[in-house]
Design a protein that fits this description.
The chain is of the alpha+beta class. The chain has a four-stranded antiparallel sheet with strand order 1-3-2-9. The radius of gyration is 35 Å and the shape is elongated. It contains 18 helices and nine strands.
Length: about 425
């Protein structure tokens, strides 16, 4: 059965009065899944049925579907609560990678300072006489720079420009979120590609009043097959199966595809122009700003270089033992620190080249679909004949409120009285017409 959230969103976009075909087209769902889902949802929220004189059915849902479901089901209430909790947990997971990077860098710096102090102290003890002649010694620890101001980077206002200098490309992430984005990206922009594909195909069918030719659907499919499979339009079989379509043969032998259930709608809607072809979105390495990415690289590089420098200093175990508990602890987790620093720079590097390869594949598929759309614009005689035949089958049935035979919104007795009154009025009108000269 279809996801109830998808069904609810589709019904709300359709203004709560729908047919099965409307929901299937709007959500891009198979008709049988849409039918099962709509019937189950209508039962749960006590939606009303409206049956036209021709037997077509429309469903009228209440405006607050989600509220009714939440009040009836503890499972849905728990699911809604868990979704809120998960958003918080996922946010904490995202910023944890940046926190670990900062903690790793702080431990490395503190360990290097402690080892430098211990080395200086050992050197001072061996040169007391020379130090006395020179009037005492001084430990010099070089100042290290680790990129942008760390405190500013964690502030929620970091990397926000003044309103007069802001652009649409400015990132809305804080720096810790940007570190996660730098490491792993921001998700697949085409995660809902199949849903978009079927919604687009359904919109093409709707725009053509329920009848299409294969050339109109091809720009939205990925694989049309080879040889005879493509010649015989086998790629249309999944489309027919999903929306209960039927092939029709024209007098000249061309094939068009009719979708009767998508020709029935609950109300006349403004026709929207469907896209010319299905376009996949290119992947982006990161949605973080360039400044945030540079900052992440600077911190990662400082972490990696610092870990290498620390590793050379940890070779002297006597110095480690004399440097204190912190250095001993850092020595015990040194390979974790070095591994994290290496992975922090290695993972984005590998991902960068992977993103480039994926974008080349996406561009190739988009170009193939665009070429199919361009071929459709160059109509040859067979396609023109099929389109002409399709227009003879095209049509739309609107389940209006004026010619309802039955609705669950009012009592059946009241409906029968209303119908009787309408019949009496019609007979009276006909009598008056006959009696008039």
């Amino acid at each position: 059965m279809a996801d109830s959230k998808v069904l609810i969103q589709a019904i709300e976009r359709l203004d709560h009065r729908v047919t099965i075909g409307d929901v299937a087209a709007e959500a891009g769902l198979p008709l049988h899944e849409a039918q099962q889902g709509v019937l189950a949802l209508a039962s749960d929220v006590q939606a009303h049925l409206q049956v036209s004189e021709s037997g077509e059915i429309a469903y009228v849902f209440p405006k607050n579907i989600q509220g009714i479901l939440l009040s009836q089901s503890w499972k849905l209430r728990w699911q809604a609560t868990w979704e809120q909790v998960w958003r918080i947990l996922f946010y904490l997971i995202r910023i944890s990678f940046g926190i670990v990077l900062i903690l790793s860098l702080v431990l490395i710096v503190l360990a290097i300072i402690a080892l430098a102090i211990a080395a200086a102290a050992a050197s001072q003890q061996g040169n007391d006489r020379r130090d006395n002649r020179s009037g005492g010694g001084m430990i010099f620890i070089p100042r290290m720079w680790f990129g942008p101001d760390l405190f500013r980077m964690f502030d929620y206002r970091y990397d926000r420009r003044s309103p007069s200098k802001k652009t649409d490309s400015d990132s809305k992430m804080n720096f810790l979120e940007a570190i996660f984005s730098f490491l792993f990206g921001d998700g697949d922009p085409n995660a809902g590609l199949e849903e978009r594909r079927w919604q687009a195909i359904a919109s093409v069918v709707k725009a053509n009043s329920g009848v299409v030719v294969a050339e109109q659907v091809a720009p939205f499919l990925s694989d049309l097959g080879q040889g005879w499979s493509q010649e015989f339009e086998d790629f249309m079989i999944p489309v027919l199966s999903r929306f209960n379509g039927v092939p029709e043969v024209s007098p000249e032998g061309g094939i068009v595809y009719q979708f009767p259930e998508l020709q029935v709608t609950a109300q006349e809607r403004r026709k929207l122009s469907p896209p010319q072809f299905l376009q996949e979105l290119p992947r982006k390495f990161s949605h973080a700003s360039s400044g945030q990415i540079i900052g992440a690289i600077a911190l990662g590089s400082a972490n990696f270089i610092g870990a290498l420098a620390l590793g050379s200093m940890l070779q002297d175990q006597a110095l480690v033992a004399s440097a204190g508990e912190l250095v001993i602890f850092v020595n015990s987790i040194y390979w974790l620190l070095l591994g994290y620093g290496s992975a922090f720079l290695g993972i984005p590097l590998v991902r960068y080249f992977w993103v480039q390869q994926q974008n080349r594949n996406i561009a190739r598929r988009n170009q193939e679909r665009e070429q199919r759309a361009e071929l459709l614009a160059q109509l040859d005689d067979p396609v023109r004949e099929k389109l002409s035949f399709a227009k003879t089958l095209a049509g739309q049935t609107i389940v209006g409120t004026d010619d309802l035979a039955y609705t669950t919104e009012t009592d059946l007795v009241d409906q029968e009285i209303a119908n009787k009154d309408k019949i009496d009025e019609e007979w009276q009108r006909l009598l008056e017409q006959r009696q008039s000269p």
